[in-house]
Design a protein that fits this description.
Blueprint lengths: L1 H9 L4 H14 L4 E5 L2 E5 L9 E4 L2 E4 L5 H21 L3 H14 L1 H9 L8 H14 L6 H6 L12
Parallel strand pairs: 2-4
Antiparallel strand pairs: 1-2, 3-4
Helix pairs in contact: 3-4, 3-6
């Protein structure tokens, strides 16, 4: 019943991002490995030529398995937090979370500003919130040094679930 409600909610209230995610998932269905994480589907997209880390489109999470294991573990939690944001925000997810997150991650002037001002990637409202939601929903603690030290809006992540 819980899974059915999750699917109904994601594919009505969160339709746009889940539709994009479903199309991407179906296009990679046979050539990539997949697994469940919480109520989401994680697809492992091995990308070595660009620094791709991960993206969440509703209940569809895509991560790069060529990254270090502690980073990969934490990426599942972080991206699952974006999945929960999709449940909360529905149709507003893409303009309020997806677009700012994409720009924060990929625009060279923004990346330079973060480095010059010693800002963690998780300083941005949607990224820090994703960490908190992912840890809460997954009942899982982060393990990488970056997330433990600066994963809570550029501050230490102190919430413990284990």
């Amino acid at each position: 019943m819980k899974r059915a409600l999750f699917l109904i909610w994601q594919f009505t209230w969160g339709l746009p991002q889940n539709l994009f995610g479903l199309i991407a998932y179906l296009s990679m269905r046979k050539k990539c490995e997949h697994k469940a994480f919480g109520q989401a589907i994680v697809t492992y997209v091995p990308v070595t030529e660009k620094p791709f880390g991960g993206i969440s489109l509703g209940m569809f999470i895509f991560v790069n398995p060529t990254r270090p294991q502690d980073w990969l573990f934490d990426a599942h939690i972080h991206e699952y937090g974006h999945t929960i944001q999709s449940l909360i925000l529905g149709w507003l997810y893409l303009p309020l979370i997806g677009v700012p997150s994409f720009l924060w991650c990929n625009l060279k002037p923004v990346i330079r500003w973060r480095k010059e001002n010693n800002r963690s990637y998780y300083w941005l409202y949607c990224e820090g919130w994703a960490n908190r939601l992912g840890a809460w929903a997954g009942k899982t603690d982060f393990v990488s040094e970056e997330l433990l030290a600066r994963g809570n809006y550029n501050k230490p992540f102190t919430q413990k679930y284990s």
